[in-house]
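User: For a benchmark we're assembling, each entry needs the component sequences followed by a predicted structure for the full assembly. Here are entry 17's components. Please fill in the structure.
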Amino acid sequence: MEDFERELHQALERRPAPPSLKRKLMEKRRARQPRGPVVLWRRLAASLALAAVLGGAVEWRHQQEERRQGEAARQQVLTALRITGHALNQMNAQLAAHSRTQE
Amino acid sequence: MAHDWQPDFEQLVDEHQSMVFSLAWRMTGDRGLAEEIAQDVFLELDRYLARIESPQHACFWLRRVTMSRSSDALRRRRVRRVDLWVEMEDRHAIQAEERTSPLGARLEQLLATLPEAQRAALVLRYQEDMTPEEIAATLAAPLATVKSHLQRGLKLLRAKATDHLREYVRVKEQASGV
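Assistant: Structure for entry 17:
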């Protein structure tokens, strides 16, 4: 090997890798690794809890809607009863007036 | 054939991180990019680990993938129309201050100005002490092509170094008033 090549060989010695390289690499590797059974169970439990909360909310909204519709129907019945009562009273008064005139 | 050797990822990182990082750095001329490439290469090794058969296979695989990833990074840069050579010279100029031998530092700078194929062959030859046959296998190139890249690269580098040395002597002489 001639001098120039020897000099080049020395110039191209390996450089030490930055200390952060291995740390970052191991972090990325950990983040990529498949989850353990505990984590899977936790995820499943969280999913079930979320499903229960959502289901409860839907059921509550459904009940509220039914209650609102029931109240509206009750108000309609009451209004109808009031109108009927009023009509009967009027008819009663007319009958009474008619009887008095005949007497 | 069955093999007893069991690859240990962390041990492979400890053993080869300097090699992978240095190859990527000398190919791209960018320390940050070299670190990213080294991380990608090792993460790919992690995925490929079950198929690594021996320490020699691991070393060969790492060199090959590092060179390939470095070429990809250089290609992406060319697409982005970055003036890589100017950038590489600037970055190597910063590194030069860390070096003890001025000629060694300058050689490294000049190496960055060589065409990519010649630079790859020279880096593997003089950083990794590889034979032309090993370089050909690593780069998946014909042996004759690798030998040609080595000869031309060395010739070009020597010519550039001679010019630089002449200029250095001329400046020194002017400064000393000879």
